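Quick one before lunch.
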Amino acid sequence: MYANINDEVLYTIAKIIGGDEAVAIVKEMKNGEEFTVEDLALRTGIRVNDVRKVIYKLYNHSLVASRRFRNPETGWFVFQWKLQPELVEGFVQSMKQKILKKLRIRLEYERGHEFYHCGNPNCPKVSFEEAMELVFRCPKCGGFLRPYDNRPVIEALEKKVRELEEELDQ
Ligand SMILES: [Zn+2]
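Model of the zinc ion complex:
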């Protein structure tokens, strides 16, 4: 059922969306069963209100779906929640798309600019334009700014972009 999604990816996403509590809740839901918020609170030891908050966050990202039924004893509606692994996959894909877009922008920037650096690993690289404004003095340590070879950065970015493109089949 979770062929395309390994647990690690699932927990990472849960953590991004709702922190450690979301991870604990997703672990309980992973087997594909339906749960009420109260079930999940009992199983995880997390307070009902906090479980509800996490479930709504997961719901906002379409990672869980709900089914409503009427409790025959009380007559009240009860919601049961279920993980939607196929949408987890969609979430991963859309995150990768966003990362790819950012990497491409960064790559274009690196390709299109010359950089200067003082040589101190704790200081920032600056663009040629910034270096001109700074009269070739490092903004942090005051050292002399020299041309910085950003080819290794470009190569690393190109590699990452290629990997993501392959994963996304583009
Ligand atoms: Zn410096």
